[in-house]
Amino acid sequence: MLKLRRDVWKVVPAALRSYVRKASGSVGGMLGLGGLGSDRAVYQRPGVEKLPREVRQSIDTLYELAKADAEDAVFVVAEMEMYGKYGTPVDVDSAFAHYLQLSELSGNATAQYMVGFFYATGLGSVEQRNGYSLLYTALAAMQGYGPAEATLAFRYASGVGAAMSCAEAMVHYQAVARSAMRHYLLGPPLGRHMPGYRAWLSDDRGGVYGVRTGPYSLHKTVTRTSFNELIEFHLFNARSGDTKACLTLADLYYHGHRFARQDFGKTRKYLAEITGRLFTRQGELRKGLTQAEASTAAQAAGMMGIMSWRGEGLAADTAVALRWLNIGASMGHATSLNALGMMYQSGVQVTKDTERATELFKQAAEKQHQGGQVNYALAVMEKTPEVAMTNFKAAAENGHILAHYYVAGFHSTAMAGGGGEASCRMAVASYRFVAEKADWLHSPIPDAIDAAMRGDLEAATLGYMRAAEMGYDVGQLNAALLLEQAGGGALFASAGDYERQALVYWTRAANQNVADARTKQGDAYYFGRGVQRSYEKAAAAYTLAARTEASGLAMWSLGWMYEHGIGVGQNFHLAKRWYDQSLEANDAGRLAAHASLARLCLRYLWAWARGRDVGEGPLFFAPRPVSRDEEERAARPAAADTAADHWEQGAVEDDADDDSNREEVDSGGSLTESLFFIVLLLGAAWMFLPLR
Q1: Which parts of this chain are annotated as the region Disordered (predicted)?
Q2: What is the pLDDT of residue 416?
Q3: Which of 333, 361, 392 is the last residue of a domain?
Q4: 3-state SS assignment for residue 497
């Protein structure tokens, strides 16, 4: 990160320095990207006139310095213009000019990365050029700039703006992952805390389309109010002496949450509540505890030991840590076993004993503790590499980043030894996991979350767009949602550009199996949002969403298109099939499904009465389909029904018969309800049933 030169700050009045410190907490807090100079004085910028006179003069001085090619001033000016900092308005076109100027002045990696970002997204009046974007991003990546490395890796892995190349993607993801692992291991004992909660903005509305609109949507919206109500419930139980509630609160504040910042003080407070109730003053477990209380006590002891060793909430005290970890380990607590093993491995407060450490790691690994599996694998890797690899893979499956890093290393070595494309893809998957989960050094998501929570949607959109360009699925989803909502802000030249970029991110999110993103892609093609309208492409997207995600909305949309012959050939039988499947997939949409079935019935009857081709066989009054099992049973010879056959298969067949009867009842119920809607809708046909 650049630092402002002293000669620059000698010219800038003290008023701006004071204002910056109040706004960001430190002078260094304002430095995140890079920039260029403008001929316009700050007084000519709308909205700036409300700032204090000294601040306006100081900002104007920065512009003069930027005009004179003072690199650090260019850097700060671009920051202010890009994110509207310190009261200045957002001006992405001027910010782009400043980033371009700085990249030409000094080859600044941040500036080069941002120029590539502009060319990739077409922000402001910048023409979207993938070639230029790839060039500037590659120049920044050559200097080891993390965000550029991650962006370039995603492009090669997905074929976005570059020819797909697994080998190139692996090189860049490996560089990001190596930097992340170095940062992780240089942290406190047992490694750094993983980056905080990744907020899916769709959860605020219950899902991309709302509450109960699909198999992946929520039953209610997630808000700070509902979260606080849940916290109050646990607080009430904790005050009533419920140690399980105390442990829940301690774990919440230890790891942090979107609506609850990490707070080691509160964590220790609730752990002290547990230890005070379940342990004696001598640190011994009280007698007569239930199994649940003993489990809570073991977890509390492990957390107390780790926090004491790492110095979280209080000064580090390895003696206290050893005492608590011994208690947790004696009770079979896996985390305590793993941490105690690391104490023996490093000789912290105990005599160094590698064999004892390995035994503790093995015990933790046998309890499926990811850290124990990784440490045990490292301990036995030279003697029994097969056992080590088994443990690495098991830990990786449970999301341990160090395990993923080693697994990726094995696959990259195998690729170099002739493993081919398959080994390369597996290496890329694991390196990418590390790069996206252990992203302390390069992720724009924390700043985007903060901006969204304080209501600065433009800054949040820019942050999530940067994350989307790096390949984060949460960035692609959140950026698409915010771009859909904006439509007329200061980031793009027109509302059409917002829709175009939103479709880009919906498509990329859909390719990463984000729920409802493929349905959103279909909506964009159906309504012509950000792209030329294409009913055929909309139908293709809906079909893929219906088959791979069981999306009730996509099924209903396909039913509508088959009913009206839009984008596909008109087919009443296929329309009914998709409406029926929509009803089965999403019970909350039964009103719309039954109304559509009623309408379809009337259209079918009207077309039949007019002599049009409505397909073979009746639509609503067809006999119940016979399953393959029923056909086989009907064709089975009577001699095959032996007593042994009855005992071995009778129960299963009885269940099948029950299911068949249940299907008949459901089918009848569906028909009755649909006929009811037919009668109801006939009375209001003049409102929404144009029988054309």
Answers
A1: 631-667
A2: 85
A3: 333
A4: helix
Q: Which of 291, 310, 333 is the last residue of a domain?
A: 333
What is the rounded distance in angstroms from the CA atom of residue 577 to the CA atom of residue 670? 13
- pLDDT tens sequence across 389-447: 999 999 999 999 999 999 999 999 999 888 889 999 999 999 999 999 999 999 999 99
Locus of tokens 């990259």: 412
- Contact call for residues 424 and 170 (beta carbons, < 8 A): yes
**Phi, psi (deg, nearest 5) at residue 312:** -100, 115
Of the candidates 273, 250, 245, which has an alpha carbon nearest to the alpha carbon of residue 263?
Answer: 250
Look up residue 667 and give its amino acid: S
Residue 91: partners with Cβ closer than 8 Å, 6 or more residues away: 45, 81, 490
5 pLDDT more than 60: no
Return the CATH number at 248: 1.25.40
Answer whether residue 440 is part of any domain: no
Residue entry with tokens 């942290």:
187
SS3 (DSSP) at 221: coil
Q: How far apart are CA 435 and CA 405, in angstroms?
A: 10
Mean pLDDT along residues 593-619: 89
Q: What is the rounded average pLDDT for all residues in the chain?
A: 86
Q: Which domain holds residue 633?
A: 551-692
Same domain, 115 and 200: no
In a domain, 423, yes or no: no
- Half-sphere exposure of residue 587, counting CA atoms within 13 Å on the CB side? 1
- Cα distance between residue 266 and residue 303, in whole Å: 13
For residue 623, what are the CA distances in angstroms to 20, 618, 626, 667, 668? Answer: 76, 9, 9, 10, 11
- Alpha-helical regions (H) of 512-589: 517-527, 535-549, 552-564, 572-585
Give the CA count within 13 Å in the CB-facing half-sphere of 35.
29
Examine the domain organization and report whether 200 and 111 are in the same domain: no
Pair of tokens at residue 339: 């941490």
Closest CA to 456 of 480, 486, 484: 486
Report how far apart, in Å, the C-alpha atoms of 224 and of each of 228, 256, 257, 451, 459 are: 6, 14, 11, 16, 21
Query: From the centroid of its chain, how far is CA 650?
Result: 47
| Residue appearing with tokens 């992952």 | 177
- In this structure, the answer to whether residues 611 and 682 fall within a common structural domain is yes
**Does residue 379 fall inside a structural domain?**
no
Q: How many domains does the chain have?
A: 3
In a domain, 161, yes or no: no
Q: Whose CA is closest to 604, among 584, 576, 566?
A: 576
User: Any idea how long the chain is?
Assistant: 692
Containing H/E element for 59? helix 53-67
